[in-house]
Design brief:
65% helix
C-alpha cells in the first residue's frame, strides 16, 4: 500500500508540474505578443542606447545587451514552441472531428499526421487530380463569382426565420390595449315604393 501511495504522489507531482509549465507557457506567449511587451522592449533598447556615451561605448556596455537578449531569446524559444504544439494539436483534433463526422470523407485522413512524407505525396496527387478535373468541368472564375456571393447571401437571409423582438411590459402607453375605432358611415334607409293596385 505504501508503494502505491508513493507512486500516486509522484504521478500527481508530474501532472502538476506539466500543468504549471503549460499554463506558464501559454501566459508567457500571450504576454510577449502583446503591445505592452513590445513597448517595454523598445524602451529598454532606447535606454541602453542612451547610456552608451556615459560608458564610452565600451565592450561591457555591448556585452550587457548581447547577453540579455540571448538569454531571453533562448528561453522564449521553448515557451513559444510549447504553446504552438498545443495549438497545432487542437487544430488537428478539430479537423479530425470534421473528417470523422462527414460520411463522404475518408477516415484515413484522420491520422494523416502519422504518415510518412512519401505517403502524404500519394494523397496529394489524388487531390491534385481532383482539382484538375474540377477545373476542366468549371473554371474557378465562373464557379466563384460576385453574383454567386449575392445569391448565397439572399438565400441565407431569406431562409432564416425572422427574429421577433419581445414586447415591453409595464406602464406603457395605452395604444397597445386600445384599438382605434374607424368611424362607420350609416347607410340611408331605402324608400320602398308601393305598387299600384
Amino acid at each position: 500500500m505504501e508503494v502505491k501511495s508513493v507512486i500516486q504522489l509522484s504521478m500527481r507531482r508530474k501532472k502538476s508540474g506539466k500543468q504549471f509549465f503549460e499554463h506558464f507557457a501559454t501566459k508567457a506567449s500571450k504576454a510577449v505578443g502583446s503591445p505592452y511587451a513590445f513597448v517595454s522592449a523598445l524602451s529598454l533598447v532606447i535606454a541602453w542606447a542612451v547610456c552608451g556615451p556615459f560608458f564610452g561605448f565600451s565592450e561591457t556596455w555591448q556585452l550587457v545587451i548581447n547577453t540579455g537578449t540571448t538569454i531571453i531569446t533562448f528561453l522564449m524559444v521553448f515557451l513559444i514552441q510549447k504553446s504552438q504544439n498545443k495549438d497545432s494539436l487542437a487544430i488537428q483534433l478539430k479537423l479530425n472531428e470534421l473528417v470523422a463526422s462527414n460520411k463522404e470523407s475518408s477516415n484515413r485522413l484522420v491520422d494523416i499526421e502519422s504518415m510518412t512524407e512519401e505517403e502524404m505525396m500519394i494523397v496529394q496527387k489524388y487531390y491534385h487530380k481532383l482539382s484538375e478535373l474540377s477545373d476542366k468541368h468549371e473554371p474557378l472564375q465562373t464557379s466563384h463569382s460576385i453574383e454567386e456571393a449575392h445569391e448565397d447571401h439572399q438565400e441565407k437571409y431569406t431562409s432564416s426565420p425572422k427574429k421577433t423582438t419581445p414586447r415591453k411590459t409595464g406602464t406603457t402607453s395605452k395604444t397597445t390595449s386600445a384599438v382605434k375605432k374607424t368611424p362607420t358611415t350609416k347607410k340611408a334607409p331605402v324608400k320602398r315604393t308601393q305598387k299600384p293596385k
